[in-house]
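Retry 2 of 3 after timeout on previous attempt. Resubmitting structure tokens to design endpoint.
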């Protein structure tokens, strides 16, 4: 199981400040923030669909420049295929949390959205997927992806 868990955490851009972005206490999201969260969720879920469908190269093309600089297309396609095999058939996914941040510490300047999903796969019936996106050239692009067993 440890080997499986290690394989879940692949091709991720470490953004210390984005790992736990939050809203200031007592503030409500603005209309702009809500729109950003919705647009990022749409982009993130489209990207996750590419992963589920085994389209590793296409999913790499939908990632940010920082992601692409850290992982080659061929390496990502291979890692995504291996991950998909280890997880087994995708069953379901439910958004558990969405957070928005601007210029988080220790990350390139910009806007970020972190999407946390409770997911079910054939070989991992209780999983958490974390998809981090950044706005790049007016579009939301994936900059990080983690999969881990729920509770870890």
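Retry 2 succeeded. Sequence:
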């Amino acid at each position: 199981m440890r080997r499986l868990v290690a394989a879940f955490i692949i091709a991720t851009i470490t953004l210390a400040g984005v790992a736990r972005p939050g809203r200031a206490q007592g503030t409500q999201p603005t209309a702009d923030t809500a729109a950003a969260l919705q647009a990022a969720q749409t982009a993130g879920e489209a990207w996750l669909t590419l992963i589920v469908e085994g389209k590793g190269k296409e999913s790499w093309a939908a990632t940010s420049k920082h992601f692409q600089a850290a992982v080659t297309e061929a390496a990502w396609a291979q890692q995504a295929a291996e991950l998909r095999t280890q997880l087994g058939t995708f069953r379901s996914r439910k958004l558990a949390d969405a957070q928005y941040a601007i210029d988080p510490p220790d990350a390139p300047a910009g806007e970020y959205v972190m999407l946390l999903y409770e997911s079910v796969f054939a070989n991992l019936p209780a999983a958490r997927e974390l998809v981090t996106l950044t706005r790049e050239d007016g579009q939301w692009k994936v900059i990080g992806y983690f999969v881990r067993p729920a509770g870890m």
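Attempt log closed. The mean pLDDT is 84.
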